[in-house]
Amino acid sequence: MGEQTQDLLVHVEGSIMSITLNRPESLNAFSPDMILGLTEAVNSVKENNTIRAIVLSGAGRSFTAGGDVKTMGNTNAAQVYDHIGKLNECILAMQSAEVPIIAAVHGFAAGAGFNLALACDLIIAAEDSKFALSFSQVGLISDGGGSYFVPRLLGPHLAKQFFFSGEPIPAERLYQLGVINQLVPIEALKEEALMLAKKLAQGPTKAYGMMKKIINHSFTASLEEILEQERISQTMMVTTEDHLEGVQAFKEKRRPEFQGK
Q1: Could you tell me which of 129, 116, 117, 107 has the C-alpha nearest to residue 89?
Q2: Is 84 exposed, middle or buried (0-12, 13-18, 19+ CB in 10 A)?
Q3: Are 122 and 181 spatial neighbours (Cβ–Cβ below 8 Å)?
Q4: Tell me: the pLDDT tens digits for 232-249?
Q5: In sequence order, what DSSP letters do the residues of 71-93 get, joined into one string?
Q6: Average pLDDT over every residue of 79-83
Q7: Could you give the CA distance from residue 164 to residue 133 in angstroms, rounded to a whole number?
Q8: How far apart are CA 105 and CA 100, in angstroms?
Q9: Percentage of residues in the chain with pLDDT exceeding 90?
């Protein structure tokens, strides 16, 4: 099963949705259709419990250059406000999706493209890929959630350094800093991302979704709030089919066969 638009490719095989940013001639710079399509694709998973993992990648030479510099300077404030509103909806959809989203990054992930990768749950990157918070080089601040994600991952001093300089950051450094989960040769990137997606798609999807929700909430919640959220969520988890299967498999000394239910 597959779906294709001009700026975004969506392909579903089994329980995995592969989404490809598809403007290779502009290093997959964002377009309105791309952002809307990505939001719709991610939101569609909420109505389709057969999808249990998503892989997000870019066509051509890079993951994405983020905002399209060629169109900058030709838009008014109202248009920018509307565009960033659409981007915000996309980031929030990715954060609230109850399945793991894996970013498979090669080439460049720049500006809001870097932030798009950070909005995913896991990042696998090609060893020679580079990341850049390049907003300052065109006199802008971060959009796409970078002001939220980057300080929480790296602390305020490194966040300011990377935002102020806008210079490329090698994937190896971000791997050492814990931003990237896995570094692989570029020729193995697609295969490794799909292997991870398949592994996650065989897991307890409802538990993954709840873990994701609580971890995301933990950045702005108190310990008391998280403890209570864990308490309520665990009460729900013990009623799931996957929990019962996990317990039964443990007793029978076999690998559990989770169904995401």
Answers
A1: 116
A2: middle
A3: yes
A4: 999 999 999 999 999 999
A5: GTTSS-HHHHHHHHHHHHHHHHH
A6: 89
A7: 8
A8: 16
A9: 86
